[in-house]
Amino acid sequence: MDYDIKDINLAEKGRLRIEWAEMGMPVLRRIRERFQGEKPLKGLRLSACLHVTTETASLLKTLKAGGADVVVCASNPLSTQDDVAAALVADHEIPVYAIKGEDHRAYYSHILSALKHRPNLTMDDGADLVSSIHFIALEKTDDLDESIRGWAQGLSPGERSAVLGEVRGGTEETTTGVIRLRSMERDGVLQFPIISVNDADTKHLFDNRYGTGQSTIDGIIRATNRLLAGSTFVVSGYGWCGRGVAMRARGHGAHVIICEVDPLRALEAVMDGYPVMPISKAAPLGDFFCTLTGDMNVIGLQHFLEMKDGAIICNSGHFDVELDLPGLRESSTSRRVIRDFVEEFTLTNGKRIYLLGEGRLVNLAAAEGHPSSVMDMSFANQALSAEFMAREGAHLEKKVYPVPREIDREIARLKLESMGVEIDTLTPEQEKYLSSWELGT
Ligand code: ADE
User: Fold this and answer.
1) Ligand 1 mean position, distance from CA 254 (Å)
2) Protein residue with its CA nearest to atom 1 in ligand 1
3) Which domains does the chain have, with CATH numbers?
4) Are 190 and 400 in contact (CB under 8 A)?
5) Taking Cα atoms as reference points, which of 344, 370, 82, 52 lies closest to residue 223?
6) For residue 356, what are the β-bridge partners?
7) Which one of 81, 126, 179, 214 has the largest count of C-beta atoms within 10 Å of its C-beta?
8) Cα–Cα distance between 15 and 43 in angstroms, integer?
């Protein structure tokens, strides 16, 4: 079996940590038990580009139980848990291409390995796998990373279209990936249907809000061991992820400031009780800065220069583009790693800025990502969306589709059941009242 991981001898540690995570994933467990019997993914090759974590291991085991021939590559160079990668290879015979700290070249060569699997189904977190397939199929090989370009250019036209020809459809986990895919759909280049897992209520209302909220603060605390109480904590972006981080930072006793570009979201932040201001005004005030916007250069060099000596900056958005890192590096007179995941930059004005996790997702770089009980719902959406795509993909258009509402509701129902929470049901009289426009009073 082909694979590229750090060290197969880490498998025992990974095995135990996967077991621990799975205790928090009852919904995915139920799905796996059904998949085991029904094999809805039988005969399909599935390439996943995901953060290789204990929770992802549980998802991959479920897909394999459903009959899929699964391989996985990293969706971020810093998020891989090497012991989990080892356990997936050693215990589950799932080819893994992921090493924590891999460089750009290795990252893309791992995506290439996932592509060589010639997937029928893709599963992405950030859309790097799907966009690479499209660059190859649409002959936009100049846009590919050089580690894939040579291989793609060596393909005959027939082989190139075969890369695409075998894909029935895909699923996408994250806000950033969905934005990329929607722009592909808008430009008329999307070549197969995608289910936007991120848009399920049982995904973004929980994973993005409570998962990112807790794991981002966890990453910041693990990296720095600084006290949040009494500090000023600036959150850029008040989407579901930003709301979660702001809420948890406030819970720690921080004075939270929100920076936003969307007037509705900014207004919501105001009414949630936060001071809202542009980053140019927040820059001199913050002790901690965290970006979660999905856009680039949200905090730029002019802002770093305005910050207090000792300010801590990090990102919890998908890509490492939200902080102007090239600007920071170029304008620093010295830099050193002062502790794990904390790099000190001394600016030309003498002030020191501390960057966490190289500006990559701090929750996965410096901590372990979202806890399993929230990934339970996200990955239940992934598994059921893959099943849906296996069944329906051939009839769908080349568009981005939401997760079917019945799947979303069923996941919520199963989650409540696993928590022992009962809820009311409508009486026939109430059903009738809700469905008839004549009954007003
Ligand atoms: N994204 C955020 N947290 C995650 C986790 N624990 N596993 C996989 N993907 C994630």
Assistant:
1) 25
2) 369
3) 8-202+371-418 (3.40.50.1480), 212-365 (3.40.50.720)
4) yes
5) 344
6) 342
7) 81
8) 27
8-state DSSP, 101: T
Which ranges constitute the DSSP H helices of 272-313?
279-282, 301-306
Per-residue pLDDT tens digits for 193-224: 999 999 999 999 999 999 999 999 999 999 99
For residue 88, what are its two tokens?
A: 């997936």
Q: Rounded to whole angstroms, how far apart are CA atoms 187 and 197?
A: 21
**283, 307 Cβ separation under 8 angstroms:** yes
Task: State the Cα angle at 316 between 311 and 318, rounded to 5°.
Answer: 140
Residue-wise burial string across 86-102, b where 16 or more C-beta atoms lie within 10 A, e elsewhere: bbbbbebebbbbbbbeb
Helix axes 104-116, 146-153, angle to 10 degrees: 40
How confident is the model over 94-107, as pLDDT tens digits?
A: 999 999 999 999 99
Q: Which position has the token pair 């973004």?
A: 204
How far from each other are the two terminal CA atoms of the chain, in whole angstroms?
68
* Residue 132: how many other CB atoms lie within 10 Å: 24
- Cα 218–221–224 angle (5° rounding)? 145
Ligand 1 geometric centre to CA of 318 (Å): 11
60 φ/ψ sector (left φ>0, alpha ψ -120 to 50, else beta):
alpha
Token couple for 152: 């793609």
Burial of 305 (0-12, 13-18, 19+ CB in 10 A): middle
pLDDT in tens, 276-298: 999 999 999 999 999 999 999 99
Pocket of ligand 1 (CB under 6 A): 51, 53, 55-56, 211, 364, 369-370, 375
Q: Compute the distance from residue 173 Cα to the ligand 1 centre, in Å.
A: 10
